[in-house]
Amino acid sequence: MKQMGKLAWALWFGYAFLYVPIALLIFYSFNESRLVTVWGGFSTKWYAELLQNDQLLGAAWLSLKVAAMSATASVVLGTVAGLALARFGRFRGRTLFGGMITAPLVMPEVITGLSLLLLFVALEQAIGWPDGRGMTTITIAHTTFTMAYVAVIIQSRLVSLDESLEEAAMDLGARPAKVFFVITLPIIAPAIVSGWLLAFTLSLDDVVVASFVSGPGSTTLPMVIFSSVKFGISPQINALATLMMVVVATGIFIASLVMARQDRQRKRDEQMAVQGG
Amino acid sequence: MAVQPIRKPTRLEPWQDPGQKPYVRIEKVTKTFGDFVAVDEVSLSIYRGEFFALLGGSGSGKTTLLRMLAGFETPTEGKIFIDGVDMAGIPPYERPVNMMFQSYALFPHMSVEQNVAFGLKQDGVAKAEIKERVGAILDLVQLGQFGKRKPHQLSGGQRQRVALARSLVKRPKLLLLDEPLGALDKRLRERTQFELVNIQEKLGVTFIVVTHDQEEAMTMSSRIAVMNHGVIAQTGTPTEIYEYPQSRFVAEFIGSVNMFEGRVVEDQADHVLIRSEDAGCDLYINHAVAVPAGATVGVAVRPEKIALSKEPPVNAAANAAANADGRNVTSGIVREIAYLGDVSIYLVELKTGKTVRVTAPNVVRRTEMPITWDDEVYLSWRPFAGVVLTQ
Ligand SMILES: Nc1ncnc2c1ncn2[C@@H]1O[C@H](COP(=O)(O)OP(=O)(O)OP(=O)(O)O)[C@@H](O)[C@H]1O
Ligand SMILES: [Mg+2]
């Protein structure tokens, strides 16, 4: 019993560690006072002000757009890379490529950011593209470093996928492209979805790489938050963060509901099969 | 080993008819993986409508050979012809071949019906016809009510039948089956063996079946190729393989066998005489062998071809020459008896120290059996029973 008590305390402590900061943020987003740490009574005025704040909303919108686009691009490229690594046998330099795909995972972001900046500047001088830095360059930069994560996820899924499924499809008359879209893709779809979500999240909270490759007109949300910290955080940011959290939490909740339903369905089916119905 | 083929012998066996063209011709095919030779100069001719078994131990190259036929591996050397067409450079999706995988390889995200319909869809068969053919083939494998299920909702045996239906529904001219019954229990296995043979005879498909179960190969196939370390050790009908093995490997791989070592002392046109220390008697065989006198050879005698008796065997007229001077007769002491119901297996220790295995049908009830442990018995066999093996 005593043991249980201790364990329960440890549990509570762990969860508090995780969630108190978030709870505090939500709590202060309803604070009347401008001072972040002083409670001045309940109010939703920061939410109202937030809706007027074009700079903040613009940054949030830009961040979401960049995250969605770069996640999509990196899923496409990462799938291709993962497929090449997992499927095309032992081509020359395969080990080298296999190692190189994971390098961006451990590369310091500052270096990634700096090298991309150099690349963009050089490209602009050479061929006149990208024209200045902005949403395009941020998207490209985010794609480069999130692609590595996606490729690793897809590759490990493909390695565990029985290759004879693809061979069977080919044996039954499907051409390789068809095999990919009808067999491989549907089976690895969950890995692709989680790769997309991971890329989206990584892009959404990146501040270092974005700082290097963004231009004057394009500031992402993390950059705005990060720079505003120096001047004191406006409670509007608390409000924005709360809103985003609600959106994310709702998304996760719906996803897990769907997954749980599928799981139950599968269990029922399996039971039916066992009973030989 | 009382295995009987479950098919009636066909009147004219195509491999004996020089006018017949083989449907599949494998010419000196070699496949290497790095330095490792998985398939070594294999040549085979397989005829239309055959049920051809590839038999061999684990790692002997059976799957590799099958995968080359299906087009998943390219031969390092040699050629494969199917229906007279050289298969070099023809991808799997353009070959008139379907393969049933060792792992079944059912598409997990598709229902049974969709799995079976997949191949027909690739060929652009009309919807109505697909529905009809899928329904018919599922009925054939007795899975009519399971069409809407996903593969993970099926038992192992049901999955195996879906895989079979999927590879049959396209009516391929050549069907490759990689250990099709490996995962089934004994009863389901026997039933499915019959089903397979029925289907094969009904649809007239040419089957090439990989197995490492010799009993399965014996019962189902028209011919068997025994593989060993990538080499075909022998090709022949089940009876040929069992009764006339050409090498020690084949003799020992198929069924059980007693192997006596000896030296040829008499080499005549109508018989050979082999002196064997092992057997403790001279071995008389009523046909000539192409080995010079003095050569050392092995003589294989199947356990069921040896007769046991407590008295010295009487020389029946037919055996007179053979059993004269105690040829093909030896004696020993019964060390073990395994009662299997229909037959009993006796392990007899000869005076020479060699243990010989004998199987005898249980004609009388067990309690009345005349021969028991530690009895001294005579072993004898007829002049045709031994097979001389030089390799
Ligand atoms: N892709 C490959 N790379 C390297 N070696 C291989 C490859 N495929 C097969 N081999 C080797 O070739 C040999 C023959 O393999 P194969 O799969 O044909 O055996 P098998 O007769 O089907 O055996 P089993 O009865 O165990 O299925 C094995 O030693 C195997 O290790
Ligand atoms: Mg195999």
From TrEMBL, chain A:
PROSITE patterns according to UniProt: ABC_TM1
Any Gene Ontology CC annotation: plasma membrane
Classification via InterPro entries: Bact_Polyamine_Transport, MetI-like, MetI-like_sf
Alphabetically ordered keywords of this record: Cell membrane, Membrane, Transmembrane, Transmembrane helix, Transport
Compartments, record wording: Cell membrane
Residue ranges occupied by any ABC transmembrane type-1 domain in the UniProt entry: 60-258
Origin superkingdom: Bacteria
Membrane-topology annotation of the record: Multi-pass membrane protein
Membrane-crossing segments per the record: 7-30, 66-85, 97-123, 135-158, 179-199, 237-260
Keyword Transmembrane: yes
One example of a Gene Ontology biological process annotation: transmembrane transport
Family: Belongs to the binding-protein-dependent transport system permease family. CysTW subfamily.
Protein name: ABC transporter permease subunit
Native source species: Azospirillum argentinense
